[in-house]
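Hi R.,

Here's the chain you asked about this morning:
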Amino acid sequence: MWEYTDKVQQHFLHPHNVGEVEKPNGTGEVGSLACGDALKLTLKIDKDERIVDAKFKTFGCASAIASSSALTMMVTGMTVSEAEKITNEDIADYLGGLPKEKMHCSVMGREALEAAIADYRGVMLPMAEGEVVCECFGVTDLEVIRAIRESNLRSVEEITNFTKAGGGCGKCEDRLREILHATVSEGTVTPVQIVGHPKRMTTLQKIKKIEEVLEREIKPVLRKDGGDIELVDVDGDFVMVSLRGACTSCAKSQTTLKEYVEKKLRELVLETLIVEEAK
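And the predicted structure, written out as tokens:
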């Protein structure tokens, strides 16, 4: 069961600004009833581009209602320029935090605000021009990339928490993993083509298995040439290591990491792992 802050509970049980603004000049609608979350945000903006009223209608869970309520409280009184700087993290922080599985509710709030401002300005949102990668929830590749960059996401599970992509039938998980790898590595990693669905492992299981493979398979080979390797951290699918001994001055150290260490860990631990050297 998720734990909600007192502020989340207050905004869920007693939400503010429910309804629609009369004759709004900015309307944003995101999500859909079919996918389980939907939000309509209406804004009244005066001649000085200040938001003088904001109301919402939402279909969703407690976090969705609380995030929508909080958003209307946050933007009322702001100028449009100030409001468009609000992030999903700001909404979550305003509520004292959200369970990681519910961060997509704050993302939905931010997206509704962006859509309402775009409607007010008469422009199309760039996110709408992306390729739909999750048919279940209508999430585009551009939305996924932005979530990865802004919230420092490191696994498909985190992408699902923030965008809902991959939370339905699961058919898009391979594509999400490709986007994750390419985005975090800034194009230096070739997207991985995966057949079937990779096994899920907890972080502790992953660390234990990686350490076992390093000790049993990888370290003995490196030590033959005077080198060594140590595990520094595991963050989602990203494995941070430190090369030791002769490996630190070897001109082919990056080749060793990618062509040997990474391939061996993908083969024996998890086929989605990416190995990087800790700086």
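The chain has ten helices and eight strands.

Let me know if you need anything else.
M.
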